[in-house]
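Q: Can I see a sequence and its folded structure?
A: Here is a first one.
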Amino acid sequence: MAAPSPLPRFLILLLAVTSSAFAAAAATGAPVVGEDYVRPPPARCHRKALLSLFPWSKKEESAASSDPQQVHISLAGEKHMRITWVTNDNSVPSVVDYGTKESTYTMKSQGESTSYSYLLYSSGKIHHVVIGPLEDNTIYYYRCGGQGPEFQFKTPPSQFPLSLAVVGDLGQTSWTTSTLNHIKQCEHDMLLLPGDLSYADYMQHLWDSFGTLVEPLASNRPWMVTEGNHEKEHIPFFESGFQSYNARWKMPYEESGSRSNLYYSFEVAGAHIIMLGSYTDYDDSSDQYAWLKADLAKVDRKRTPWLIVLLHVPWYNSNWAHQGEGDSMMASMEPLLYAAHVDMVIAGHVHAYERAERVYNSRPDPCGAVHITIGDGGNREGLARRYRNPKPAWSVFREASFGHGELKIVNSTHAHWTWHRNDDEEPVRTDDVWINSLAGSGCIQEGSRDRESRKILMSP
């Protein structure tokens, strides 16, 4: 059968993008402020200003096609890091030279490469190289492909304290750049992103510009991400979903026993962190459900007293935007998280911030998880300003504003969560709370309740 002509593909692309735009507008709703805070007009902040903060990541505008582009790093199993970058020159080898002294490379690793085509777009050569074993809490200098500029990163610590930056629904606006500037100002060991990265929405060149935009931060600290609806990019009969996301943002799913890059887990210092997929099957007969159950059953709270879950669609949401979209996933998986005594569930999708107290089965519960919605990184679709009133009993703080979160896990029992509004040159700390781990509470104890919980996780 002959390949479809470019014109029908273009029309399908136009229809897909238009549908996405209308859906986003409908979900956001009218610009009615749900809380007292009224957001001022935005200040301009540009990519060049961000790059000036990272001299080790600056590249000449006329960089050679063989030089690395869109460099980012992610954890790849215990004491290993995955280095990912793109080149326009297919002859560049997938190798990384690295060491602990500037411009001195004593180690070398070779990896793999991939590429993909999407409608009329063809990607560059996407390199993935795993390096290690690495020392904890150590600065490494590295070079991609045997040439080009030198980059550096710092490995996470092996014990507390652990500092995590959290941002969702990032996009590529002036607010995105401001958010990234604010994250740069905070000391963090890694960044967690619960979906909606580039907002490319079928226009593949926007994946390239997003990779360039985040490179200064993402090449310097590991970024651990999961997919959102804007990563799907599925066009029936023409393009399968998640092609660009899976090719560009490879996560350590195989190391965690998962069969899909759309959900996985990893451990850092004393935290076990699970990244779930809101846009792949999650009912009790799915691979993801079976994997989650097995993963939770293996968690040792003496070794990793903190148990944190990230996913894209929130389960507890008092905003009118995306109301109820997480209900079916919550009905399937919330009992598993409750049985495992998950401490926090962090989501995106709704373009506003909200923090709930510990909750389970739609009611406040001291043994439930703290739920946080943080889909306010700076996306182009704007803020979701309409909240449902009266506020639900479980909702503690909510605000329609762009921003980012910071989670500092101080020790095995205490963590400090802050959310920073993105209005000024300096981030404004607007929500601030100490969270106690369930590992140090009466919720986890040798008794009938805990035995029943283990039965849920260990049952066939």
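Q: Show me another, different protein.
A: A second, unrelated one:
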Amino acid sequence: MLDVSVIIPVYNAEQFLEKAVESAVHFNEVKEVILVEDKSTDNSPKICLKLASQNSKIKFFQHSDKGNHGAGATRNLGIEKAEGSFITFLDADDYYLPNRFEAEKEVFKNPKFEGVFGAIGIDYLTEKGKQEYQTKFKDSPLTTVKYHAEGEEIFKGLLGFTSKTFGTFFHLNTLTIKKAALERNNLRFNEDLRVHQDSDFIIKLAYHCYLKSGIIDKAVAIRGIHDDNRITKIIQYSSQYNQRQQIYWKSLYDWAVENKLSSEYKTRIYLNYKSFDLSQKKGFKKYYNILKEVIKNPEIFKTKYRFNYYK
């Protein structure tokens, strides 16, 4: 039997929080649901306290200074508090489906596997949120990878090195990871990233840990799409999006250098970072820098972002 700690970062989620918790707490595999509240301005803290008082599996924490520290630091605190052998994550406006741990029951029978992930679906909670999401993204019912993979193939696929398209990413809500693997590799969320810290974490996890795809043809969790989703708000402003992506890929490049990744991996990460850096240049300076970078690194054309993404 799995013993899973479900970590839910909570910030201004009063409308959705109870559904998220209820979707997780009933599983026999779930040892505890950890609510980490990040200085909400709505009734989320009261709801957390109420839920914790009603079920001993639900535990409530806040940062020691009661301040707002962002999703990365909030999830990190959840990891520190977790007592289960396995860690999963759930955003407070999302929820698990009944098949959430079906793949895990089989995959973790093999001790070489340290993590498993699956597909996530969409639930449009508001009409405005639906319109914003469909304007920014393809109206796909699933966010998932294209084929089953394990080990280094996943890391290579996420960076776009495989001969066929693997997929942009898998969602954090579908990940189950052994806590021992996080501790052994000193893996935590980058607290300096206010957005994209989940993507940053997933790339590093895929490099350091032996992962396997689970259920990828149907959802194991659902994303709630509503008026206040952060990612659609950021993408409304291309310059802000490019800036956040630049910071994210710079974080990955610094990590790649520190961990002495192969030149092939390091170069690809650098070029993704550079493509967003170049996208923020203006006028003649922009095209001069693009030309200089292309002469130095023609492989920049192999990145899916290139330098004119969201120009």
